[in-house]
Hints:
The chain is mainly alpha-helical. The protein has helices at about 1-10, 15-50, 55-70, 85-90, 95-105, 115-125, 130-150, 160-180.
Amino acid sequence: MAASLRPAVSGASAKYLRRVTTLHGAGLMVGAIVMSLALALLGSIVTAMGMRLILLVPVLVAVALAVLQSMGVRLPQSRWQVPEYWRRTLDAGTLPVVYGAILGLGVFTAVVVGAFWVFLAETLRYPAPVALIGWSAYAVGRMTGFRLALQVHPLEKIFLSAFHQRLLIIATTVVATLVAFV
């Protein structure tokens, strides 16, 4: 995402970077709020139907996938973010918001850590206020990463080595599993 907007902000003033980051953050927050409320609503409906136990199925599947990823199995993922022509046709004020909203949903981008799916599945089991807090934290984390990515030159400096990626995957899988079952 930051790499997609980098040409638009390359050499931009600090004020313009703050504007792009703020617009992107607003979009992220909207997407995260929509996702958190949709998942909490779905979980509430399933619970109201007396089938709360079935909500463990997606959590167990997500934990299994995250563990497999920790062992080196590559998980399928979408690299789609937005159509290429949007980058050329949307104005500079709209593009960061649209990107942010899509990324705020979390499922329309590359998910490099399988623990994200545990987080998503676990959201089904929580009430709306807890889901909102969790997804808002997710949006803030993505916004912080976006801002840092815009500041680091060259962008490749932020990429982790394979060893550090594996450590990150294992650590987030352990934390997500503990949160899901403790």
